[in-house]
Amino acid sequence: MELTGIHALIEIVVQLLFVWLAFNAIQGFHVERFFKHPPRTLPLAIVLAATAVGYLCASFFLNIISAIGNLVYLVR
Question: Which ranges of the chain would DSSP assign to H, the alpha helix?
Answer without folding.
Answer: 2-27, 42-70, 72-75
